[in-house]
Amino acid sequence: MNCAILLESLKQPFTRILLRPFSFIAVFLIFHFFNIQFEPGGYTSLFMLCGIVIRAKAMLILVTQFLLF
User: Fold this and answer.
1) 38 is in which domain, residue-wise?
2) Which residues of 6-27 are buried (b: 16+ CB within 10 A; e: fewer)?
3) Most exposed residue of 8, 17, 28, 65, measured as fewest CB within 10 angstroms of its CB?
4) Residues 16-40: pLDDT tens digits?
């Protein structure tokens, strides 16, 4: 709700929330296709990926809002 208030839109926060599961699915598929065991390093990569995805989406939202106005 806070994100919707700050961004003045309902669509942008939902896209930001929905990007996380897709990034996790990609990590699991990479581990599966390359026959790598999912160890503590894999869990660490998920946490790092979550932060990177959230930050990238926030920057994209801010840049597009800046360019539109």
Assistant:
1) 2-68
2) ebeeeebbeebeeeeeeeeeee
3) 8
4) 778 778 888 888 898 889 998 888 8
